[in-house]
Amino acid sequence: MKKVVIVGGGIAGMTAGILLQKAGFTTEIFEKNAVPGGQCTGWKREGYLIDNCIHWLTGTREGSGLHELWKEIGALGDGVEVIEKEMFFSAKLDGKVLTFWRDKERTRRELLALSPEDEKEINKLMDYVELAETMTVPVEKPFDAMSLLDFMKLGMSMKEMGKVMKEYGNMDLKELAMRFRHPLIQHAIVDYMPSGYQAYAFVVSYGTVTGGNGDIPRGGSLAMAMRIADRYRESGGILHTNANVAKVLLNGKRAEGVLLADGTRVEADYVVCACDTDYTFRALLPAGCMPKALKKQYEERDKYPVGSGFQIAYAVDGIFPEITDTRIFPCEEILVGKQTVQRMSIQSYYYEPAFAPEGKMVLQSNFAQNEEDYSYWESLYSDRTAYEQKKKEIAGQALERVVAEYPALAGKIRVLDVWTPMTYTRYCNSYKGAYMSFVTTKQAKSITVPGTIKGLKNVLLASQWLMGPGGLPTAAAMGKYAAWRIIKKG
Ligand SMILES: Cc1cc2nc3c(=O)[nH]c(=O)nc-3n(C[C@H](O)[C@H](O)[C@H](O)COP(=O)(O)OP(=O)(O)OC[C@H]3O[C@@H](n4cnc5c(N)ncnc54)[C@H](O)[C@@H]3O)c2cc1C
Predict the structure, then answer these.
(1) Is 90 exceeded by the pLDDT of residue 428?
(2) Mutate to test the pocket of ligand 1, among 15, 28, 35, 39 (most ligand atoms within 8 A of CB)
(3) Ligand 1 centroid distance, CA of 22 (Å)
């Protein structure tokens, strides 16, 4: 029985592990943290659960290859309840609120009532959202292994997306926003995602929600990661936690195994690097082995930016039903990292009573951070006292602004935890603190990187970084592709 060592127990690594176990391989996953799941995680603070990933899980609707994959690895199925999202998010300006509902016709009506002069663009946007509901993430086999017939079938299944891409494929969200006259619509379109994202990203994400394909499994991110880890162990895999891998051991064109940070050598027939790809080629493998397509994206920083967040969790004493899902609202100016922010988000986990003690609730704010902000946090991190002080200061200011927006929270809300882009680097070895992959900008088309490495026969990559913009479906698909290649080789 051939043995595969997998570096990283995130969604990509565990997906590869489960599929390889099922195919008869012996596998071991080495995860540096105490808990598996990587960025798909959550943690307890003072009786509250801080969920840190799933805002929507693409693939919750039955009938797609991705849905089957989620079931196969234990993310969905087996009685896992799926919570239907009522809305994508809402945005506020000048006292008015615009909501992107699950019910797209309700959104269309509200948009038209808000801004009749934008009728043409509103109808176009909402028609495209409907077309984007057909979007699927192909997970059967790697793109480079697909035949012409496979591509034709894929193209046919998503043919409606062609119209969306034709119109929105060459503009970014800022340009899309400026097609509308109403300031609230302009703001809303760039509120949820970075304004440099291609315009279709908004339509596809919202279409996932309206199409009932982007809901949330009960228990959130940590529970999902734990179910996948259980499935891996049940299939006979060995999951080592607190097991930091220092190096992939190479002998010419072959890997012999890995060396753990504690000096242990683990032999293997195959090694799958299922962690951040920048880290992989800085620490585990020689930098020169990085696939060209990946290198290009790391080198062209303007074309392939990455993003992270400055995040705050609040404990609330009481239940406030008026705070639902995610709302972005205008606030008094606040400096977060290097950015002066005038709008901020508040997200409620009202749909998960178990995330807070009875009669209480947990809220979060996430301030988008770019690479410049990352450099700021990285340099501040060298002085831990100053770093902690700055986190506290910004969180305090954010809390004041939340209370200004929701005065009923006065005296009933406090900061539970604060984390920055540096947290992701420390926790997951993430490149510039990013928790998604390269942003798909209009200057640069998305690149899919095959998970193979030229010159290294038995080492594979499995990570969301192989296909922008990343996310859970990409991580699972890349894990499956790595397993597929190994199974094929035998
Ligand atoms: C705030 C936030 C919100 C998000 N929202 C969504 C969402 O709504 N929907 C969605 O689809 N996606 C979302 N994502 C993105 C999603 O979490 C990621 O795309 C996905 O989890 C990445 O999985 P991965 O396996 O590729 O990488 P990772 O999760 O980074 O896993 C890699 C693993 O490798 C481990 N590792 C690294 N170095 C070593 C080493 N030397 N030795 C051993 N182990 C190592 C890491 O600790 C980690 O566990 C969100 C992420 C965040 C943080």
Answers:
(1) yes
(2) 39
(3) 23
Among 213, 210, 217, 212, which residue's Cα sits nearest to residue 100?
210
Question: How many whole angstroms from 424 Cα to the centroid of ligand 1?
Answer: 9
Q: Of the residues 206, 435, 439, which should be mutated to test ligand 1's pocket, given the most ligand atoms within 8 Å of the CB?
A: 435
The residue assigned the tokens 């009522």 is 86
Q: What is the pLDDT of residues 475-490, one digit of tens each?
A: 999 999 999 999 999 8
Q: Give the C-alpha separation, 453 to 461, whole Å.
A: 8
Closest residue CA from atom 35 of ligand 1:
8
Strand partners, 347: 326, 364
Mean of the per-residue pLDDT values of the chain: 95
State whether the beta carbon of 285 lies less than 6 angstroms from ligand 1.
Answer: no
Tell me the two tokens of residue 288. Answer: 């020169």
Query: Rounded distance, CA 141 to CA 147, Å?
Result: 10
Neighbour tally for 428: CB within 10 Å: 22
Radius of gyration of the chain (CA): 22
Cα-Cα end-to-end distance for the chain: 10
DSSP string for 293-361: HHHHHHH-TTTS---EEEEEEEEEES--TTS-SEEEEEEEEEEETTEEEEEEEEEE-TT-GGGS-TTEE
Residue-wise pLDDT tens digits, 323-346? 878 999 999 999 999 999 999 999
Given a cut of 90, whether residue 22 has pLDDT beyond it is yes
